[in-house]
Amino acid sequence: MSEGIALPPLPRGTLLDEAARVARLHEALPQIRAVLAGETDEVALQATMACLLWETFAQANWCGFYRRVGDSTLAVGPYQGAMGCLRIDFARGVCGACARTREVQLVPDVRAFPGHIACDDRTRSELVVPVVTRGVLAAVLDLDSPHPAGFSRAEGDALLGLVREVFGEPGG
To answer: All domains of the chain, ordered by start, with CATH?
Structure first.
């Protein structure tokens, strides 16, 4: 399935209401799983997932991965959107908080988040999901939106389930 996923097209930046966003994500998930089925290369998985989630989350202005490259450092990985920060220390920002805690970070207003890193000044909300493989943090999946409250807990939970399934950490 090289043409992407079959979803009704939306202009980039469109913020649907939460119920419509969650329904769109649940429509996309089986298609994303089908595309990724059988792939084992981590970069291919991350790049393809970033692309397909970019198609799914029209409200996003950034969607991709930061890979763990040291004891407390993340480096930009496959993504869609404007240029991301190249390196993020675990002590900084929403991605760093996710890396430190290994918990989903849902931030409806990044301006109110202590230590937020403004890789893109347009970003107003953020959702970050830990990618844990064999008990070790391997990366974080980061989604940014120019809309306040651009993501919901339901979207975070669904993405956490997808990441655990794809990267092999069922149940946490």
So the answer is: 18-167 (3.30.450.40)
